[in-house]
């Protein structure tokens, strides 16, 4: 028979999911920031602007930003779903505990 998780274990899971989501968002944000940093540095190195290398870097920075926003959004939705499921499980566990207490009286 499988062991049921305690409320404390479920709270730890929720906190873990929140922390991982935050760290992933920060990491992807850093990637986007570095892409923009490189693109802007390249722009200012060129006086006057010539060639397509600069525009390629801007395109890359924009593309990476869009991808990262979508990935972070997806991770947040997955995290919210997991937290919701854990909270439902906690509520069911509390309800069962109340029922057992009521039956004992």
Q: Could you explain how this protein is built, in words?
A:
This protein is an all-alpha fold and 105 residues long. It has one domain. The chain is built from two helices and no strands. The radius of gyration is 24 Å and the shape is rod-shaped. The protein starts with 6 loop residues before the first helix and ends with a helix. 3% of the residues are buried.
Keywords, separated by commas or semicolons:
rod-shaped, mainly alpha
SSE layout and pairing:
Elements: H1 7-45, H2 53-104
Helix pairs in contact: 1-2
**Assembly annotation:** single chain
End-to-end gap: 28 Å
Which stretches are low in confidence, meaning pLDDT under 50 for 5 or more residues running? none
Number of helical runs? 2
Q: Quick check: average pLDDT?
A: 83
| Largest β sheet strand count, sense and barrel closure | none
The Cα radius of gyration reads 24 Å
Strand content: under 5%
Structural class: mainly alpha
Please state the overall shape, judged from the principal axes of the Cα atoms. rod-shaped
- Count structural domains: 1
Number of strands: 0
Helix content: over 70%
Compressed to H and E, one letter per element, the order equals HH
């Amino acid at each position: 028979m499988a062991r049921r998780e305690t409320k404390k274990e479920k709270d730890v899971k929720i906190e873990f999911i929140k922390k991982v989501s935050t760290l992933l968002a920060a990491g992807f944000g850093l990637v986007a920031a570095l892409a923009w940093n490189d693109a802007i540095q390249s722009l200012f190195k060129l006086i006057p602007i010539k060639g397509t290398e600069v525009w390629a870097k801007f395109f890359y920075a924009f593309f990476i930003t869009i991808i990262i926003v979508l990935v972070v959004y997806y991770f947040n939705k997955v995290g919210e779903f997991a937290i919701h499921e854990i909270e439902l499980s906690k509520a069911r566990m509390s309800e069962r505990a109340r029922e057992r207490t009521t039956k004992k009286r």
